[in-house]
Design goal:
Strand order of the largest sheet: 4-5-6-7-8
Order of helices and strands: EHEHEHEHEHEHEHEHH
Helix content: 25-40%
Number of strands: 8
Largest sheet: 5 strands, parallel
Strand content: 5-15%
Distance between the termini: 24 Å
Structural class: alpha/beta
Number of helices: 9
Oligomer: single chain
Length: 263
């Protein structure tokens, strides 16, 4: 059984002292690849260093997270774009709009998001989208920028049936499912019951959102197996079948079925 953790921040301080053990446990759990979304200009070197330490296992994305957008974001974007041009990346991410913590920078976040969407078209890369309390706003930006030319994942989906249906109308986009699925009162299991299987990929978002029975603790990639089991239960199929489906979906979205990422 092979798995891909399509979204994990394993280069952050939370893993500074035991990354080797975290990687070993992930491999024991059947994980063959982990995708590392960037946060801002301060994390570029950290993510690339982790990727260099575990080549063929870690794969980096490049982007500016919406909650990192600040006054003077043009310089931030210049730094991120230069890094994107210099390196090899599997996606533009983590990018998007976040209206949960602070809506005062919505205009700036939207401008930053849409600029990065144009990069994904330019570089022919998928996008990993953060959309907390901003599903409608993110979809509007995608449509303005050119939904036919864009593809990617709505990371950490935990929304309603209506939100799922709105996302599924974007034919080139899927949803990323993490530990929220295991939370008793999330309602996500019911939402996903009739979701097309070919539109779902798995993620942990480590060190955040650890699944039950580890909720409240530091999350790590090996816990992906618990998310897989929950999804298999929802779909009423075996974990092996669910693993095959979601891994193939991730390989197709991020281009792992070709020779693009032999670096």
């Amino acid at each position: 059984m092979k798995l891909i953790d399509t979204h994990a921040h394993l280069y952050t301080e939370e893993f500074r002292y035991d990354l080797a053990s975290v990687v070993a446990r992930a491999k024991e759990a059947g994980v063959e690849k982990v995708l590392l979304p960037n946060i801002d200009e301060t994390t570029i070197d950290k993510a690339k260093a982790a990727e260099a330490q575990y080549p063929g296992f870690f794969y980096s994305m490049m982007g500016l997270h919406p909650t990192s957008v600040r006054s003077g974001w043009e310089q931030q974007l210049d730094t991120i774009y230069e890094a994107l041009l210099r390196g090899n990346y599997v996606a533009v991410g983590e990018i998007g709009i976040d209206l949960y913590w602070d809506s005062s920078l919505q205009t700036a976040q939207t401008d930053v998001f849409e600029e990065q969407l144009t990069w994904s078209i330019e570089k022919d890369l998928p996008v990993s989208i953060h959309f907390r309390n901003a599903t409608k706003e993110v979809i509007r930006s995608i449509k303005r920028t050119g939904q036919e030319k864009l593809r990617g994942v709505f990371h950490s989906f935990g929304g309603t049936v209506d939100e799922l249906e709105a996302i599924l109308e974007l034919k080139n986009f899927c949803i990323g499912i993490n530990g929220v699925l295991t939370f008793k009162n999330s309602g996500l299991a019911k939402t996903l019951r009739n979701c097309p299987h070919d539109r779902v990929i798995l993620e942990t978002d480590a060190p955040y959102l650890a699944p039950v029975p580890f909720r409240g603790k530091r999350n790590e990639t090996s816990y992906l197996s618990h998310i897989l089991t929950s999804l298999a239960d929802v779909w009423e199929i075996s974990p092996e079948e669910a693993a095959g489906i979601t891994t193939n979906n991730a390989k197709e979205l991020f281009g792992f079925d070709n020779d693009k990422y032999k670096f």
